[in-house]
Structure to design on (262 residues):
């Protein structure tokens, strides 16, 4: 369970509670999202990469084909179990382990790159910054990635957000607009900013897969009771049947910040 005052008013959440839905419905990043890293020689053949907050291993599994050797860690054991299962089903040799990112225990200068996808806000940066610097090789890079839908420009996303707030009023994962990823001051001692960029993405869904994506968000599946999650799903599917075609795209933006070890 994670509890942070600046996230959902301190309401606790645990993505391990929604691991099956997470594995099924949140592997949604377009190839352009991963190609951004490959074009910058991150997660390429011959590199060792640590993916922190790996969840169900979405980033390592999708980038495995490019030849890097991945290790993925996550605080939620249920997420790691799903990651291991999906990697095994895909015939992928990826090491996964349950561990908070702040407690990584690898020898110094082990990794060429560290990645953090959709999880950077959850960490204790005062602890994490020196840890990441330590496990990176000289000149190694820390890539921070994020993707979110744009509710002020997409009516389906806006309607779904409104329903999430009905069930979880303190959820502050709503109202996204395009923004660069901020880097807390704790990293200044150890890293230089190499690049900070944003770009738009259109992500395809069906009613079922968009419902699954919303159901597995922090405000629903990771924090509500099973009964409330089931009621949300019933109401959300009825909403989608009234406003969305059977197949559609949701407008998202992606943001990537790359830090280089000093």
């Amino acid at each position: 369970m994670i509890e942070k005052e600046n996230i959902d008013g301190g309401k606790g959440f645990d993505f391990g509670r929604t691991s099956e839905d997470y594995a099924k419905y949140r592997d949604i990043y377009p190839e352009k999202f991963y190609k951004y890293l490959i074009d910058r020689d991150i997660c390429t053949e011959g590199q060792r990469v640590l993916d922190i907050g790996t969840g169900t291993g979405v980033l390592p599994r999708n980038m495995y084909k490019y030849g890097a050797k991945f290790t993925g860690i996550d605080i939620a054991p249920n997420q790691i179990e799903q990651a291991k299962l999906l990697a095994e089903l895909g015939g992928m040799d990826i090491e996964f382990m349950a561990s908070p990112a702040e407690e990584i225990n690898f020898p110094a200068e082990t990794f060429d790159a560290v990645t953090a996808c959709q999880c950077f806000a959850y960490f204790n940066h005062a602890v994490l910054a020196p840890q990441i610097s330590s496990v990176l090789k000289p000149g190694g890079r820390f890539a921070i990635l994020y993707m979110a839908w744009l509710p002020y420009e997409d009516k389906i996303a806006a309607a779904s957000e409104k329903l999430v707030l009905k069930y979880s009023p303190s959820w502050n994962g709503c109202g996204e607009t395009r923004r660069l990823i901020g880097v807390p001051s704790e990293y200044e001692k150890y890293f230089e900013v190499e690049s900070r960029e944003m770009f738009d993405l259109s992500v395809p869904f069906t009613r079922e897969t968009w419902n699954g994506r919303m159901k597995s968000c922090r405000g629903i599946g990771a924090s509500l009771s099973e009964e409330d999650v089931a009621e949300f799903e019933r109401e959300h599917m009825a909403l989608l049947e009234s406003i969305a075609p059977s197949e559609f795209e949701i407008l998202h933006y992606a943001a990537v910040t790359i830090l280089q070890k000093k």
